[in-house]
Specification:
The chain is of the alpha/beta class. It folds into two domains: about 160 residues, Rossmann fold (3-Layer(aba) Sandwich); about 150 residues, no CATH class. Helix content is about 30%, strand content about 30%. A seven-stranded mixed sheet has the order 5-4-3-6-7-9-8, sandwiched between helices. Strands 12, 13, 14, 15 and 16 form a five-stranded antiparallel sheet that branches. Helix 7 crosses helix 8 and helix 8 packs antiparallel against helix 10. The radius of gyration is 26 Å and the shape is elongated.
Length: about 375
C-alpha cells in the first residue's frame, strides 16, 4: 500500500493530450522512502519531483515546436518528465534525468499509459560528475533554480555535457536566481537571449517568467574538416632539418578570460574599465573589421590592431558586465563570419584566368591559410 496519494489527469500540450499520473499535490510524503532520505531529501522536498508544475508545461509546449527527430536531448531535473515524454513521442533520442529516486518509476508508468516504448533515464547530481552520461545536442530544464548555488552547479553540468554547437532551453518562473545562471553561462562561453511569458494555463493557473535560450557555437569550417597549416622543423640525418606541414583542425576566435595584467578597475568617473583576453593574436585586418563593428556598439569596444589580443571595453555599473560581454562575443562571431566572407569575395574577384590557374587544391590551401589566422 502506498503512503501517498496519486492522481491521473489529461495534460494537453499544443492540442495533443497526454495521460499523466502524478502526486495528488505537493504535500504528499512517503516516510518509508529510505533511499530518498539517504540521498538528503527531506519531508518538505520529497514531493517536489512528482507534480506537473506550470513551468514544466511551458517547457513541454516550447520543445513540442522544435525539430528534434534524431537529436540527442537531455532533460535535467525532469520530475514527472512531461517535456521528455513529448520529445520521446516526437522521435528525439531523449534522456530524462533527476536526483529523486522515484522519478524513474513515475516516468515508466506514464510511458506505458501513453503507449510509448521505454526511454533512457539517469539519476544525476548537479554537484558531482556524472560519468557515462555523454554529450547532447539539446539540453532542457524547467524550474530548477531554487537555491543560489544551483545556478553555478547547473551551468557547469550543462557545459560538461554539451556538444560544441549545443542549444539550451531553461524555463524559469521568475525566480530570483535567474540572473545568476545567465552570468555563469556567459562566463562559460554561451550567448543567450530570453522570451518572456505571462499566460494562463490548465486549471486557471497563471504562470509568468522567462524562457532562457543559450547557445555555444563554434565557427563552422568551410569544408569539413578544415585544417590549418602549422610549419615545423623535423631533424634528418646529417644535422639538417626538413620543413614538415602538420594539418590541424582550427578553432574559432573567442574570449578566454580577463587580461591578467589589467584586471577590471573602477575609474574616478565611476566607469568600469574591462580588458578581455583573446586566445591568440588576431590578424590586423580582422582587428580593423572588429573596430568598425565595435564603434557601433553601446558602449563602444575596440582592439589594438598591433597587439591583436586584448579587447578593451567599459560599462557604467557592474550589473552591465555580463550583458556587455555577451554583445562582445556576438560581435566577435560576426567579425569571424565577415572576415571569411571577405576572403571568399576577394577570390571571386580574381580574373577568370588567374582563378583558373590557382586550381582547386591551391585555392583551398590559400583559404586554409586565411582561416588559420583566426586560430586563437
Amino acid at each position: 500500500m502506498l503512503n501517498y496519494c496519486l492522481k491521473r489527469e489529461i495534460v494537453s500540450v499544443n492540442g495533443f493530450d497526454y495521460r499523466i499520473c502524478s502526486l495528488q499535490d505537493d504535500q504528499q510524503f512517503d516516510p518509508d522512502d529510505l533511499e530518498a532520505f539517504e540521498s538528503g531529501l527531506t519531508s518538505t522536498s520529497w514531493s517536489l519531483f512528482g507534480v506537473v508544475w506550470p513551468a514544466s508545461l511551458i517547457l513541454a509546449e516550447e520543445v513540442d515546436r522544435l525539430g528534434v527527430a534524431g537529436k540527442r536531448v537531455l532533460e535535467l531535473g525532469c520530475g514527472i518528465a512531461l517535456a521528455s515524454i513529448v520529445l520521446h513521442r516526437l522521435g528525439a533520442d531523449i534522456t530524462a534525468s533527476d536526483y529523486h529516486p522515484r522519478a524513474e518509476t513515475f516516468l515508466d508508468r506514464n510511458l506505458r499509459d501513453n503507449g510509448l516504448p521505454p526511454m533512457k533515464f539517469r539519476r544525476v547530481d548537479f554537484e558531482r560528475d556524472n560519468p557515462g552520461l555523454g554529450k547532447f545536442d539539446l539540453i532542457i530544464a524547467s524550474d530548477v533554480l531554487y537555491q543560489p548555488q544551483q545556478a553555478q552547479s547547473l551551468s557547469r553540468m550543462i557545459s560538461r555535457h554539451a556538444i560544441d554547437n549545443v542549444e539550451v532551453i531553461v524555463v524559469d518562473p521568475a525566480r530570483e536566481n535567474r540572473s545568476r545562471i545567465t552570468r555563469h553561462m556567459v562566463a562559460l562561453g554561451f550567448l543567450h537571449h530570453y522570451v518572456g511569458f505571462d499566460r494562463q494555463i490548465a486549471g486557471g493557473l497563471r504562470c509568468k517568467g522567462r524562457i532562457l535560450h543559450f547557445r555555444r557555437h563554434r565557427v563552422a569550417p568551410l569544408e569539413s574538416p578544415l585544417p590549418c597549416r602549422i610549419h615545423t622543423l623535423h631533424p634528418v640525418p646529417g644535422g639538417h632539418h626538413q620543413e614538415i606541414i602538420v594539418m590541424q583542425k582550427i578553432d574559432d576566435l573567442r574570449i578566454v578570460g580577463m587580461d591578467d595584467v589589467r584586471p577590471p578597475r573602477i575609474r574616478k568617473e565611476a566607469y568600469i574599465d574591462l580588458f578581455f583576453e583573446l586566445s591568440g593574436k588576431a590578424p590586423q585586418d580582422w582587428c580593423e573589421d572588429f573596430n568598425d563593428l565595435g564603434r557601433k556598439m553601446n558602449p563602444q569596444v575596440k582592439i589594438d590592431k598591433q597587439v591583436g589580443q586584448i579587447v578593451e571595453a567599459w560599462v557604467k555599473d557592474m550589473e552591465q558586465i555580463a550583458a556587455h560581454l555577451e554583445k562582445i562575443q556576438a560581435t566577435i562571431q560576426d567579425c569571424n563570419t565577415q572576415y571569411i566572407e571577405k576572403a571568399r569575395q576577394k577570390k571571386l574577384a580574381l580574373p577568370a584566368a588567374a582563378a583558373s590557374a590557382v586550381g582547386k587544391n591551391a585555392e583551398q590551401s590559400w583559404l586554409n591559410d586565411i582561416v588559420a589566422g583566426l586560430k586563437f
